[in-house]
Amino acid sequence: MLQKFRFNIIARVATIILLSSGIMGSLYYKYYLTAAFVVILLIIAVAGLIRYVNQTNRDLANFFESVKYNDFVTNTSAGHKGESFGELHSGLNLINSKFRDIRAEKEANHQFLQTLVEHIDIGLLCTNYKDEVILMNKALQNLLRKSYLMNINGLKKIDEALWKTVVEIKPGTRELLKLNVQDQLLQLSIQAVDITLQKEPFRLVSFQNIQNELEAQELMAWQKLIRILTHEIMNSVAPITSLSSTINQMLNQNGQSVSQHMDKIKQSIAVIQKRSEGLMDFTETYRSLTRIPPPKFQIVDARDLLDEVHTLMTPDLEKNHVKFERHFPPSKVSFHGDPHLLEQVLINLFKNAIDAVKDREAPRIIASTNSTGKGKIMMQVIDNGAGIPEEVLEQIFVPFYTTKEEGSGIGLSLSRQIIRMHKGNLELQSTEGEGTTVTIRV
After folding, report:
1. Are 46 and 16 in contact (CB under 8 A)?
2. Closest alpha carbon to 324 in 385, 380, 367
3. Does the residue 113 lie in any domain?
4. Rounded CA gap, 328 and 294, in Å?
5. CA 353, CA 438: separation in Å to the nearest integer?
6. What is the pLDDT of residues 223-250, one digit of tens each?
7. How far is residue 323 from each of residues 166, 316, 364, 381, measured CA to CA in Å?
8. Same domain, 437 and 319
9. Which of 30, 297, 360, 419 is most buried when burial is the number of CB atoms within 10 A of its CB?
10. What range defines the domain where residue 246 resides?
């Protein structure tokens, strides 16, 4: 193509040179009529050369302008110059075709994502750095009973707490909010993420109504709790009822003196008293689950916290010949929490770990802590005990569920509740024959 272009330019320039020479020759020999005719031919040749060069420039300029305005409909043609620029225009048309395909694919992806966003039952709200609402899907419109929002401040008209939560929520965290919209109670789980598109920051906030799920989980929790309470209370009431009936029979026997049965009566009453006190202790333990004081947050050094708990548990560790290891990062790890409540959690975990390794040949417990960034930390208590069977693991956090003869069954339940009050989570992983790992993230 370039060779043809070069040949055409050289041929046209040569023609202009020849015509110029013809004009000079005609003037020299005073052929004025011939000179005039050659001048006309020269003008035509020069105009043709200019048009030949400029036409290609115009075609390229038109192509780039089409790219600028996303117009990929028009194809260019090189018919006005024959075959010399056919390859160039074929290339431009191919680029146009590729752009059309990319645009169609982009549009299809946009339609797919738009359909997906509108189809899911989770409310989505996208805002820019000016707090202008860029996206509000149908799920959120139905959730808030609001057809549109121009600005995030429009949430104030729905609920002040909702607006404050959306404005102040940190990316990667989750907030729970109770909201009453047109006499409908909503329990919203709100999460946010910051994204950058074409160097412009956006925030995407999701709203999920978990009221039905919470009610279902609450019902299941109540059912489990009632079964356990019923079981424990019946275990205490049944012998009390039986002994009371026996004492009543002894007192109402005809012809026999009460003094003959006094020892049995005293023994039965003592058993009734003991069992009643046990039932009182049980109900008091239950009350403690609902009377956890709110955390008093302060800066806590994770290493100091573990060291204090280790000091408290040293007698038990030495008594059971447990090897204890502590793993800390080189730098200081601090976070916000209530040291007294967290200390109670760690004591429970240490006691469970000591009980788990009592019968092992080389009992070992490892405590570690590390930073997970953004003021969050992870603590772990690892033991090499016998592990927890899978069927027990499913019930391990149920209040009053215990496999220990002297256990109350509230230690792990209470610990998880305290960690949740710190907006963290407590996880337990166990493998039979290998041991158990308890992980705290706060």
Report:
1. yes
2. 367
3. no
4. 28
5. 9
6. 766 776 676 677 667 777 777 777 777 7
7. 48, 11, 5, 13
8. yes
9. 419
10. 214-289
